[in-house]
Amino acid sequence: MAAEQGNPAPNMAESSARFDQLPPGRKEDVEHQNGPGRPHFDPAARPGAMVSQVLQPQYMKLANPGPLGLLSFAITTFVLGLYECGAGLPGSNPQGDVGPNQAIFGLAAFMGGTVQIIAGIMEFRVGNTFGSTVHCSYGAFWLSYAMFLLPYLGIEAAYNGNERAYTFALGIYLILWSFLTLLFLIAALRTNVAILCVFSFLTLAFFFLGLANFLATEHATASLRINKVGGAFTVVCAFCAFYAGASGLMIPETTFVRFPLGEIVSGPES
């Protein structure tokens, strides 16, 4: 059966000869790992032998960095989306004097920023140009966004109290991220439904949040409503990212559960 599957059965004579040549201390280690008299690893005899939930670990094998990047993005985006909807704020007003986003700083700097950039570098290592670009870009977004939340950097103070100039600058910042996300959406058209939903809702979220900042000083009521719409799209985007990231963790080695991504079947390339 092993030979039929492309995995030739181990040469017992050779394994035993190599085992006999080992020094006594090394023999004890091998027997402790594989059982007395077993110079080779037998999965049938030791089905539970594993390291950190990985059976017969290949220490140079690269893990899938996708779930790490998606989940770090998802949790940070979800929290920000709730704040932009006004959750827990006086009058549910995300544009008031209380908050709304200062509490996101830790998540933005570490989970959304640092962790996602690490995931992007890992995607580069496995040859995924798209994944590397996306994760590093949004990791940089969260780090740059976190800078707005540090008063001692003086970013807002540099506008000398001109609220319109400051909110307009934020609007430009967010609209350009909407444009970049749209490019990512186009580049992802042959991936799967879950990823397309992430980029679609994120494009809309950036657009409406940017638009709300453009209108913040001249049309306050409309700006508030649009900001909450942007926050709602942000929350939906985060749910999609949670689903897509969790799907990558649902592997046969650890669970029976599967999260289908909705693979897109396309014709052959022209």
UniProtKB/TrEMBL annotation:
It comes from the Eukaryota. It is found in: Membrane. The keyword Membrane applies. One of its GO terms (molecular function) is acetate transmembrane transporter activity. Keywords: Membrane, Transmembrane, Transmembrane helix. GO terms for cellular component: plasma membrane. The keyword Membrane applies. Residues 1-45 are annotated as: Disordered. It comes from Aspergillus puulaauensis. InterPro entries: AceTr, Gpr1/Fun34/SatP-like. This is GPR1/FUN34/yaaH family-domain-containing protein. Belongs to the acetate uptake transporter (AceTr) (TC 2.A.96) family. It is a multi-pass membrane protein. The chain crosses the membrane at residues 62-83, 103-122, 134-153, 165-186, 193-217, 229-251.
